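Lecture notes, part 5. Sequence design as translation. It can be helpful to think of inverse folding as translation between two languages: the language of shapes and the language of residues. The source text, in structure tokens, appears below.
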């Protein structure tokens, strides 16, 4: 499967998941708003997801997928790869059970670290501890889902894994529609998170059985293969989790800001994560097993070309998303969230936060394209050094900007630190001879910028013509229709200008999707 087709498969299912996620968030803003309970649930939702992204998705995939792919390449029967996966599952499950038990006991102390500002409000602190204890078992199930998904991706079966997040979103939507009248909203949502993790695990268990890769339970043992994976995983946990650490630092600092600041960051990040998930995660997920196979076969030049095409594709799709999120942030937030307990003031604050986050959007995605270049070669130590640098920079800028700019300063710090991380990763790969920017990417990039400028001007014109988006006198249906005109009008402008400048041509795109022009 070509890189473009694999990315389209993953991105398509991810887009469906994000649409379901936005439906979930629309319901959440209506029932939660941006107050005390919302802040507590955001913390409860973020903690297991922080560890998931840092260890299960980031470090684990960085270590497991290349090793599992190599074993698939060396043994066509798949028995060596299956045994390695079963040994990994046994150790992972044992560690997860112990870690979950410890965190449950230590949750009050963890909350003082995670959201120290809550300590001044006993009611808020106690609710955050209670809700986080409910959601934390989600980590155990979703980590096992990452193992299952890594196996499926290495086998070229991307669809089942990419569609898995849809299950969590549907579970949370069901909780809000049917259980909130019977249960307190924060508790209903928290139980839905854990239930969603169980259902995701069952879904991928069935997918593995369908390809004959169902895993048996083994007695946990630190075999040589598992020890090798853990050795690679240890530094990768820091490197791949740098972005998540940055976001958690934002959460800690935001707990000292006025009520609602955490929610503004959360809702803005949710919108910002749509292109990150659809584009960045999709390309990065497809890229890692592809690069691993090329490196294992000694096809170094092919690996460099694959990274260039991944970067070209990501920039072509991401730059217009960043421009749109900055120019029409208020229409986006107002249309998606402004109803029920979510007020016009909430819309304005969240829109400003989104606009600042969006300045770093291409960087968030490029990090996911560049890091597989290290991981495919089992080099996890280098990204660690860069992650520590960006983490320190993010913290210092956040502390400097939090007082004058509140949550906007935190969003700016995250964006700046991410761009620095991109620069360091690119320099590191180039220095080792593992990446060079080829002539095609150098030619296409300025043309993408020209198309993006045309897009921004078109969006600004339509936004100005349509007038205000917030307020009691603005009806919801006209607002939705106007946003649809803005979005599809912007896509049309960007597509036409891209064709005229040669940033990407329609005929070429068809060839890429058929796998004829990946190199």
């Amino acid at each position: 499967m070509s890189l473009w087709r694999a990315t389209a498969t993953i991105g398509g299912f991810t887009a469906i998941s994000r649409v379901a996620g936005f439906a979930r968030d629309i319901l959440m803003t209506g029932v939660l708003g941006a107050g005390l309970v919302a802040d507590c649930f955001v913390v409860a939702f973020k903690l297991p997801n922080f560890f998931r992204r840092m260890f299960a998705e980031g470090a684990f995939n960085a270590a497991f997928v290349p090793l599992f792919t190599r074993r698939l390449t060396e043994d066509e029967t798949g028995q060596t790869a299956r045994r390695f996966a079963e040994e990994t599952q046994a150790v992972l499950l044992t560690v997860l059970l112990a870690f979950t038990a410890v965190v449950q006991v230590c949750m009050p102390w963890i909350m003082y670290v995670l959201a120290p500002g809550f300590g001044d409000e006993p009611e808020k602190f106690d609710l955050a501890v209670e809700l986080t204890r409910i959601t934390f078992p989600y980590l155990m199930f979703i980590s096992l889902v990452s193992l299952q998904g890594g196996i499926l991706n290495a086998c070229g079966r991307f669809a089942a894994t990419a569609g898995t997040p849809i299950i969590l979103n549907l579970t949370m939507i069901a909780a809000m529609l049917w259980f909130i009248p019977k249960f307190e909203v924060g508790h209903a949502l928290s139980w839905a998170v854990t239930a969603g993790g169980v259902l995701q695990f069952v879904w991928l268990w069935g997918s593995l059985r369908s390809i004959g890769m169902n895993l048996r339970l083994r007695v946990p043992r630190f075999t040589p293969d598992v020890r090798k994976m853990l050795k690679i995983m240890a530094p990768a946990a820091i490197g791949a989790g740098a972005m998540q650490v940055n976001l958690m630092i934002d959460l800690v600092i935001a707990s000292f800001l006025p009520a609602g600041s955490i929610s503004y960051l959360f809702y803005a990040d949710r919108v910002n994560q749509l292109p990150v998930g659809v584009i960045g995660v999709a390309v990065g997920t497809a890229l890692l097993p592809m690069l691993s196979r090329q490196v294992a076969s000694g096809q170094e030049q092919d690996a460099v070309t694959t990274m260039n095409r991944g970067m070209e594709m990501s920039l072509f799709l991401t730059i217009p998303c960043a421009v749109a999120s900055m120019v029409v942030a208020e229409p986006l937030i107002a249309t998606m969230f402004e109803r029920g307990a979510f007020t016009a003031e909430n819309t304005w604050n969240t829109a400003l936060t989104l606009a600042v986050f969006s300045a770093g959007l291409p960087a968030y995605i490029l990090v996911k394209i560049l890091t597989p270049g290290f991981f495919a070669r089992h080099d996890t130590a280098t990204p660690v050094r860069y992650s520590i640098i960006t983490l320190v920079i993010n913290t210092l800028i956040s502390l400097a900007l939090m007082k004058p700019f509140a949550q906007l300063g935190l969003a700016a710090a995250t964006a700046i630190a991410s761009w620095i991380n991109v620069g360091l990763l690119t320099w590191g790969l180039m220095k080792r001879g593992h990446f060079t920017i080829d002539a095609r990417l150098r030619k296409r990039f300025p043309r993408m910028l020209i198309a993006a400028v045309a897009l921004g001007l078109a969006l600004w014109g339509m936004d100005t013509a349509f007038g205000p988006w917030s307020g009691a006198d603005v009806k919801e249906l006209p607002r939705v229709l106007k946003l649809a005109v803005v979005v599809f009008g912007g896509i049309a402008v960007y597509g036409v200008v891209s064709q005229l400048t040669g940033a990407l041509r329609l005929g070429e795109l068809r060839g890429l999707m058929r796998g004829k022009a990946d190199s």
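The translated text above is only one of many valid answers, since several sequences can fold into similar shapes. The chain has one domain: 3-513.
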